[in-house]
Amino acid sequence: MNPVVLQAGLCLLIALWGLSMIVMGMVWSNVIWLGLGVAVLMVGLPFLRNLLPDRLSRGVR
What we know:
Structural class: mainly alpha
Largest sheet: none
Distance between the termini: 29 Å
Radius of gyration: 14 Å
Helix content: over 70%
Shape: elongated
Number of strands: 0
C-alpha cells in the first residue's frame, strides 16, 4: 500500500475521532470531552491539510 494513502487515512481517522469527541461532549454537556475533542481535531487537521494537493489546500478550484 502507498504510504501517502496510509498516512491520509490515519489523519482522516484522527480528525473524525476528534469530531466525534466534540459531538459527544456537546450531547452529554461534558466540557472535558469537548476540550479533548477540540485538541485532537486541532492535531489531526493540519496533517490532513498538508496531504491535500496545493490547489485544494489553498481553496482554489
